[in-house]
């Protein structure tokens, strides 16, 4: 598999500007992306290692804006998360909705991954497009240890999302009325 990925990557990099080659290159790029994201989802560290070795862009995004790190975190692939972080994947990347790998890990209950991602140098109160923070996710899904850790890192428990919810209120089961 490593050889296949390296060959595909080399072939893509060697294509010329000829129209037929552009179509082939686009198809090859798409196949590589699919293999890369599949490796992250399934935790295939061997395949991810081949992409890392080939200097593949670790922050490549799919149509939803997900990076391999976001997918690995969401799918509970601890070893893949560690590998991607060690290779330089951006832990602060946001998908098209503004969600981060940390938010995905909290949502899915992947607490060891969430703790690992909290070690990254990302804004504690980073917001998604609904104004929600990781602390709000932790509060909403009753991930008390994560909420405590985020609070210790300076998370604002009085921050409000687009509906007016705060982490403090969500932790107590109180939701702002919908409009």
Topology (SSEs and partners):
Layout: H1 2-14, H2 19-42, H3 45-53, H4 68-74, H5 78-87, H6 101-108, H7 111-118, H8 134-140, H9 144-152, H10 167-171
Helix pairs in contact: 1-2, 1-3, 2-3, 2-4, 3-5, 4-5, 4-6, 6-7, 8-9
Characterise the protein shown here.
The chain has 179 residues and is mainly alpha-helical. The chain is 56% helix and 0% strand. The protein contains ten helices and no strands. Helix 1 packs parallel to helix 3.
Calculate the mean pLDDT score and round it.
91
First-residue to last-residue Cα separation: 52 Å
What string gives the helices and strands in order?
HHHHHHHHHH
Please compute the radius of gyration using only Cα atoms: 19 Å
Tell me the fraction of residues in β-strands, as a range.
under 5%
Low-confidence stretches: 15-19
Helix content: 55-70%
| Form type | elongated
| Main sheet summary | none
Question: How many helices does DSSP assign?
Answer: 10
Beta strands, count: 0
Structural class: mainly alpha
